[in-house]
Amino acid sequence: MEEKRLSIVEHFTQQMTSTSQAEMIKYYYYKIMVYEGKQPQAFQALEICLTLLAPKALLDTIKELRAFSYQRESKWRWLEWTPKDLNRIGSKPSIFWLWLTVHPKGYIRELAWQQLAESSVDRKIIFLLYTVNDNVEELRKIAVQQLMKEQLPKEEDLIYSLPFIQRLGGLGHIENRTIQEYMIRQLAVRPDILLAAQQSKDVFIYRYAFELSFLLNGEIRNRSIENGLKKTDKVTLARTFREMIRTAEEKEEQVKKLLNHPQTVIRKLAGSWCYNHLESESAMIPLLLDSAVSIRCLASDYSKKYFPDFDIRSYYLEHLSQYEVNALQGLAMLLDIRDREIFLPRINDPRKNVRLAAIGWLSCLPKDEQVDYYKEALGDISRDVRRKAEEQIGELYPFFYPKLKEEVVKQFKASNSEKHQQSILKVLTNESRKEYLFDLFMLYPYGATKDLKGEMEQRIYYWKYEWNRRFFTVFTEAEKEKLLHYEGAIDGLNVGMFLERNGL
């Protein structure tokens, strides 16, 4: 059976160029309309479409199916359905009518809901919740009546419907709020549904499940807090922490336990709460070895504030052998020149975070010592290390110009790495706009790759707008002659015309 389901989807992908689920549904309705022999397969495909879609994808699909166009749509004849066409087709399963409840034509939607009035079909509640916001008042009334008179659907469909219930709160018609309040009351008496929804893999489902669960009292809320702290979603973690702080009886003890939580968001929130509410709390000191920069800085400020005699550097040195990377990151934050023997041998360490810590520490050295290390780091394999080197060497550029320029230009010409050369080009942006233009022309022939040369061409073509947006740069005759020497360096670029068009 599973192989047959997959074959239907594969058949569609072979026939269609679009990956839109709405296009797929329209395609099978076209098959139903035109090819009677294909109807059983098409009905099955429509059911598969419904079961495979996540809530967000289903909502997007419904919106696309519902979209109306005043222009005649020839593709798959989706807008051409009439009551006559529907009557002409023989026996039709509920899934056929379910998708038609989001047809662009109101009378088709009304006819579909009439056919589904007494029908029980999977995901029916979703389409009713969508119809509650229909622009046709009569259809809104039908949706409200069916939702309120029918018993709650099976657990799976109710869990799936949570994002659609949440969506009602932001819509305009009065029926939306009425139904949302009604569904929330129904869920409140079935907290087991909310607890089950918290285990869903769909972020839109479990986020709203936690939101509703926190409105309840007693054991359900406590279990929801436990479940929320096990998630990895930042929104859910932050919401759970706030709820725990609001309701916990022993806040201090519970928060201190969360200082070792595996999720950075929770550790940061717990650390911030301790910083603002607890004094001289020794549980904050181990956060000096946290992997997150923001938490280390928070712990450092806290230690300086409440433990003025505590030697942070000694603490890092004591833990260097056991927590090498985190301790090095902490030492780099202190910028203590006494750590020269620790960082300089690690400047080319195979671990990115160690190299990054060493590059960050270098700024405490004398400026003339820093430059050579930053120049070497411009060719690092890690983008983060290169960016840090670009930033630091940019600050030093005015102090060592023009010698530093000569050295990085030599590096550019000798390098075969596109990323290395891109970093050098970023360093050269610290020059004047005029000099940068000359550099682009001069270095263009040495570009390591076609892509990099193309990027340099674009920088030349758009130089006036990127580097001379407000100020008019005047070129002397000698400078114009120098630029003309680059004639032919770039295919298709007439340097004389370039100067003329840019008013130079």
Give the key terms.
mainly alpha; about 500 residues; about 0% strand; about 65% helix
Structure write-up:
The protein is 65% helix and 0% strand. With 504 residues, it is mainly alpha-helical. The termini are far apart.
Strand-helix topology:
Blueprint: H1 2-15, H2 21-34, H3 39-52, H4 55-66, H5 83-88, H6 94-100, H7 106-115, H8 124-131, H9 137-149, H10 155-160, H11 162-167, H12 174-188, H13 191-197, H14 203-213, H15 219-228, H16 234-247, H17 251-257, H18 264-277, H19 293-306, H20 312-318, H21 324-334, H22 340-343, H23 352-361, H24 367-377, H25 383-400, H26 403-414, H27 418-428, H28 433-443, H29 450-461, H30 463-467, H31 477-484, H32 495-501
Helix pairs in contact: 2-3, 2-4, 6-7, 8-9, 13-14, 14-16, 15-16, 16-18, 18-19, 21-23, 23-25, 24-25, 25-27, 26-27
- Let me know the average pLDDT: 87
Helix content: 55-70%
Strand percentage: under 5%
For the report, how would you describe the main beta sheet?
none
Q: What gross morphology would you assign?
A: flat
What is the straight-line distance between the termini? 73 Å
Put simply, the count of helices is: 32
Overall radius of gyration: 33 Å
Number of strands: 0
Protein name: HEAT repeat domain-containing protein
InterPro entries: ARM-like (IPR011989), ARM-type_fold (IPR016024)
